[in-house]
Amino acid sequence: MILQNVSCEACANTILDKARSTDGISNPKIELIKNSLTIDCISHNALMGLKMGLKEIGYPVKNECHIVLKT
To answer: Cα separation of 42 and 70, whole Å?
Structure first.
């Protein structure tokens, strides 16, 4: 997913911390140059929880490039 307002390594670390602390989310990776976050998630609810959490801390999702839910 592409995120807004990602401008530095501190932003990336904050986003990774939020992803790691969200139930059902694992293996977060961020590409700072592309403002892109890649995750593994176990459910739609986990994904929505992460998206809401990121928005609350100032990094809303701009668009979702490719989503594959793992079972």
So the answer is: 5
